[in-house]
Design brief:
100 residues; mainly alpha
Length: 100
């Protein structure tokens, strides 16, 4: 069954997703900020790049909750790891801009 090796492999795959996302879409903080601006306009509230990461993680948690398919759960876990890393990066960038 599972074990530490499976968890490590999953996290390594999440890291690769972050790298691929940066190649396709640019830095996560920039992409999440763009999404935040659109969501802010659509919802009529202020949405931050960190909020985007949290919402995307929430979506993946719902997918995880509603399926018994291990492949879907694994994919969701990889995405959650990627969104967590990207969201933390967006947080650090926002903080450095605020403190500058």
């Amino acid at each position: 069954m599972g074990g530490p090796a499976h968890g490590i492999a999953l996290l390594e795959a999440a890291i690769e997703r972050i790298r691929q996302g940066q190649e396709q879409y640019g830095p996560p903080d920039v992409m999440f900020e763009r999404v935040a601006k659109i969501w802010s306009e659509l919802l009529g509230i202020t949405v931050t790049a960190e909020d985007v990461a949290r919402c995307l993680i929430g979506f993946k948690l719902v997918r995880w909750d509603i399926t018994d398919d291990d492949d879907v759960v694994e994919d969701s876990c990889k995405d959650i790891g990627g969104y967590s890393g990207a969201g933390f990066e967006a947080r650090l960038v926002a903080r450095s801009k605020r403190d500058a």
